[in-house]
Amino acid sequence: MAKSFDTMQDSGEKWKEVVGRKVDKVANKVDRATDADMVKAREANIRVTELTMNKGETSKQLMELVQTELLDRLKVVDHVQVQKVHRQMSSRRLDKATDKAPTIIITLASVHDKLTVLHARKGLQGTQLGLDEDLTPAQQAQKQAVWAIFKEAKEAGERVY
Prior knowledge:
By secondary structure, the chain is α+β, with helices and mostly antiparallel strands. It has helices at residues 5-42, 59-74, 91-95, 111-119, 137-155; strands at residues 45-49, 82-87, 104-108, 130-133.
């Protein structure tokens, strides 16, 4: 009682489908775990845009620049503890000939310090400096989706919070 070729092919397709679903399920779990790890690693980070870059800038000079140009201006220099500061240098940015300085990533000691700085960012009004949370790509996509809904409601004349 040999199986026909079509029956064997159907069972092979079903096997591929079952394995494919299991692989997808594991991949989704890994993606969620990786995203959760990324969120945890970035939870006390802040991104600063448009802060000038000096040629041959060292990490010590960058720390001093962040202290004077950002934290002093926000009047939080005595209230927060900065653990690490670095510029986000990407190959895409280096290939382009732009006048825009690379983004600075500031790692603060705690989420409380991060919130203190973010609440004080209204002190940057009238400057070119930008200050925002360091979000994962998944969080950025969510934020963009919500922002689109927010703008649509705002244009419809609704009061949006």
